[in-house]
Amino acid sequence: MPLLQRAAANSSTALLTCRTAKTYNLSRGRLSFPRQFYRPLTVKSVTDDDIRELAAKPLHPLTLGDLVKHGRPPLSAQALYKSANFTLSILPTRLAHRIQSLRNLPYIVVSNPHVSKIHNNYIHSLSTLLPWAEKEIKTLEDEVKFTEVMADLVHTHGNTISILARGFLEARKYISPKEVTRFLDEHLRARIGTRLIAEQHIALHFSSKPHRELNDKDSKNGHGGQNNDNEPSSSYIGVIDTELRPASIVRHCESMVGDICELKYGVRPTVVINGEPDYRFAHIPTHLEYIVTELLKNAFRATIERGMEREPIEVTIAPLPKDPSVNEGDKGIRNLDQGNLDEASKTIGGTNVIEGNYPSPSAHIRPLEESTPGVTIRIRDRGGGISPENYARIWEYSFTTFSEDQINSTLSDGSPSEGNGMDAFNAITNSQGGSSLAGLGYGLPLGRAYAEYFGGGIAVQSLWGWGTDVYLSLRGVGKIG
């Protein structure tokens, strides 16, 4: 199988094989490249000077607006070149910053084979981008080759989260949980942007007509290729669904998590959706799918283990007001970029209120304009709430309620130990991190990172002995013509 096709097939977050990207289907060979463009990637050795020079440059503050600025597909050849050159202009710097960040860890931690593997993966990806760094993509043939590089990048970093999780757990004697959380909060947020940039260009590539014309030209030489101008228009702009319906994502995640519950516990709670279930906005489906799966997993598990499975889990969908001054009272949910974890964790009577506003160390992450429409999703369960000894630590990447024996079992064989089947990574077919992260304490903080990346957030209100309300807010990209 050709590199781009293989990489996209193996990368479950790539739009090309995503459940929600119905217009892109590589598995049937409907959108294939001419065969003469399949060739090994050109690489250039990466020196320490290259890394220092690139890491000294400021990072472009990615926004959702950057991802849609090239227009709605299918793009013209010129628009596609602009997308490729924009992608090329910002990825090398991002990769160099990640390499430098890894090198700043204690030597004994970087020496861990799993952490070292991630370092080498970033070196490899940078080596495939450097040959393009001093040129401008002006031809369709170059754009095809560059898209191969993007597919290789997505494939190479597909298991970053799970590999880092194993590495930090093995090195946990040499680095504090606070240091791990600080590093991962920055590193994994930066990874979100890097993957988005690459996946966006791949998706725009496959939805653009110039390649169909190239395929038609190639088919005259007996290489096949199809052109279907009668395909219905898509609501997607690359990886962004401009008509994303949160209620549909909730139902899909409910089905997946419910199946896992039924397999593990023999029962499955029900979900009731209220508010405005028909609301639509523009966002990234795979991000919302991961977050909702993780939150429902927690709600389902707590509900079942407390014996409250007959009590439905309530999901309320509420559009955010277009004018942020309309509701100043919910800034704790809508603006999660102030204060710190200690200040955000407080007790009001018997109620624990925990806002996911751990200060982001990534100053290059810029939210969208305050007036951008979005949505708040509340997930309410009767699972007994979060115990006082646990609630203040839920945002730590290394925090887990699993025992040391269960963690060691996961580390030893790379598979979930007994009792770990509820992890959200398994529930969405490992789409964000590859091998299992079950029980390793990465689900909720990673979900918060996805929510906060574009100016949203997560807040948790727990009534110990009763249940938990989780508020997820997301901002969209506004109205797109």
From TrEMBL:
GO BP annotations listed: regulation of glucose metabolic process
Q: Its Enzyme Commission number?
A: 2.7.11.-
Enumerate the GO terms in the molecular function aspect: ATP binding; pyruvate dehydrogenase (acetyl-transferring) kinase activity
- Residue spans of biased composition, Basic and acidic residues class: 210-221
Q: Where in the cell is it found?
A: Mitochondrion matrix
UniProt domain Histidine kinase/HSP90-like ATPase: residue ranges: 283-478
| Pfam families, sorted | BCDHK_Adom3
Q: Where is the composition biased (Polar residues)?
A: 226-236
User: Which keywords label this protein?
Assistant: ATP-binding, Kinase, Mitochondrion, Nucleotide-binding, Phosphoprotein, Transferase
This protein's source sits in the domain of life called Eukaryota
Classification via InterPro entries = AK/P_DHK_N_sf, BCDHK/PDK_N, BCKD/PDK, HATPase_C_sf, HATPase_dom
- Entry GO CC: mitochondrial matrix
Question: Region (Disordered) spans which residues?
Answer: 209-236
Q: Which PANTHER family match?
A: [3-METHYL-2-OXOBUTANOATE DEHYDROGENASE [LIPOAMIDE]] KINASE, MITOCHONDRIAL, PYRUVATE DEHYDROGENASE KINASE
Family in the record: Belongs to the PDK/BCKDK protein kinase family.
> Can you name this protein?
Protein-serine/threonine kinase
Q: Which organism is it from?
A: Coniosporium apollinis (strain CBS 100218)
